[in-house]
Amino acid sequence: MQTQNIQLRSFRPPCSRPRRPPKAVRELVDALLTPLVNAYPLAEIFWEARHRSIIERDASGRRTCTQEWVCGAQLRVVGERVSAVSWTTDLTAQGLLRAFAGLGLRLNAPRLPDRVRQLTLKLDDAATLQLRQVAAAELTTRAARRLSDTARVRVEMDEYLRGSATALGRSRQWRGRQALVSIELPRPDGSLLRRARVLEGTCGPEALRASGLLADVRTAWAQAPHPAGELAGRMPVVVAPGFGAILFHELVGHSLEADHVLGGASPFAHCTYGQQVSHPELTIVDSPQPEVGCGGLFVDDEGQTPVTVTLIDAGTIAGMLHDRVTATMVGAPSTGNGRREDFRMEPQPRMRNLVVAPGPHSPDALRSDIRRGLYIERLAEGRADLASGCFTLTVEAGRRIQRGHLGAPVRGVLVRGNIRATLAGIEGVGNDWQAAPDPVFCGKRGTVITGVAGPTVRLGELEVLS
After folding, report:
1. Which of 79, 108, 201, 380 shows its CA 20 to 30 Å from the CA of 220?
2. Which of 266, 235, 272 is nearest to 376 (CA)?
3. Which residues lie below 8 Å from residue 236, measured CB to CB, with a gap of 6+?
């Protein structure tokens, strides 16, 4: 994607660049991996240590702090007729051997090195973790003080070490540090205003201020919702730059995850590369670049180097998102999209940053001839049934379009349509590209953080329900 004349944000991946693990770790995982790689085309050992501090301030001002420590490893093999997974929280030699036996394979148990009796994973020292916890507690107080006494503020601080070995002598290990700040404010009608930011490895007041989270919450709170009772029927829909691109996360990103396509559970399952499915102005990529969203990363959860994948190129199907399993199925390299929530879950094709490329039109031009329509600024939640090709999305924030101009605020309406028909009906793409500062919590069999970015896009007519 061309990025000239585009305002990029300074996101930073929460993880470091991968490195070789210590010698003791390499020897232990290679010993475990040897019988697996000799018997199966795809074998992997994944290990993880994580410390999480969760600090919450509720509407009454009461503050609670909980801490979670977790360590574990997963062994996995995939063959022509075999797929087996086993995981353990016991990282001693005996615990790892029990996990090996848990695969249920007819293989001799590996001989582990005598001098290495445990998979040792070290995080920051306790004093450093305590300092970060104190900083997070102060952050919750500051955020609530600047917003409202009824604000619920939650800070999750993750410190983690992950590693993966997919071949003998090819193990990689990486560290991560991440602070997730989320704010909830109850509206008078009982609904919640929610906003969140992923801070760049720190949780101090300066990082919070630079994130724009508090200003975003105040702006959203000041926009009084307009009754949406009369906004219903079929009408043109326009999605805003930035967070509006979550529509394409749901409609395009998930539809072109290779496990869905190859399994037949995608509206594009029977399409071919180069097939025209949308407007020639529409180009969509999935990018690991940290400059375009908070889903950027240097390495995926299979230890693979991520690459940018073009999904839609000038309206035609151009690619899919692969992990190692789906890549092996079609004889292609992994695209570095193998992601998982933790060591208890298998990796699967998941998005990083879903990015819609800018087009030629000004946003005003895209709305100018719409007499009555809907402008979507934020989507709260929704469901895309990939098998049927239908979707229903909830609009958290939007505006009426009246005679080409943005009118009264709208919230809580539903937008319903068909994925293929909606993409085919796109009428134009704007030149006002933005990266959304908010994380997108993608919940496909486990939650991972992704990002979205894009310009204003004019869709065709969709069904709007109050």
Report:
1. 201
2. 235
3. 370, 373, 374, 401, 427, 458, 459, 460, 461
Tokens of 425: 């009906």
- How far, in Å, CA of 270 to CA of 35, rounded? 38
- Please check whether residues 241 and 182 belong to one and the same domain: no
Cβ-based neighbours of 26, under 8 Å, separated by 6 or more: 20, 169, 171
> Structure pTM?
0.92
pLDDT tens digit string along 189-208?
Answer: 777 888 898 876 556 667 77
Q: Which of 192, 222, 252 is the last residue of a domain?
A: 222
182 backbone dihedrals φ, ψ, rounded to 5°: -125, 145
Per-residue pLDDT at 203: 61
Among 224, 379, 357, which Cα is nearest to 292's? 357
Last residue of a domain, one of 222, 242, 266: 222
Q: Is 121 helix (H, G, I), strand (E, B) or coil?
A: coil
Residue with tokens 């998930």: 254
State residue 6's pLDDT score: 40
Rounded distance between C-alpha atoms, residue 412 and residue 191, angstroms? 10
Low-confidence ranges of the chain (pLDDT < 50): 1-10
In-domain check, residue 5: no
Please indicate, yes or no, if residue 228 is contained in any of the structural domains.
Answer: no
pLDDT confidence of residue 363: 97
pLDDT score, position 1: 46
CA separation for the pair 28, 150 (Å, rounded): 51
What is the widest separation between alpha-carbon atoms in the chain? 77
- Co-location of 110 and 247 in the same domain: no
C-beta of residue 6 within 8 angstroms of C-beta of residue 241: no
Q: How many domains does the chain have?
A: 2
Report how far residue 47's alpha carbon sits from residue 54's, in angstroms, rounded to the nearest whole number.
23
Asked if 116 and 154 sit in the same domain, the reply is yes
Q: How far apart are CA 258 and CA 325, in angstroms?
A: 10
Following DSSP, what letter does each residue of 128-169 receive, concatenated?
HHHHHHHHHHHHHHHHHHHH-TT-EEEEEEEEEEEEEESSTT
Q: Are residues 177 and 240 in the same domain?
A: no
Show the domain range for 451. 233-465
Same domain, 218 and 238: no
Distance CA 104, CA 85 (A): 9
Ramachandran bin of 212, using left for φ above 0, alpha for ψ from -120 to 50, beta for the remaining angles: left
Residue (of 17, 12, 13, 14) closest to 303 by Cα position: 17
pLDDT of 8 reads 41
Tokens, residue 183: 């704010």
**Residue 345 within any structural domain of the chain:** yes
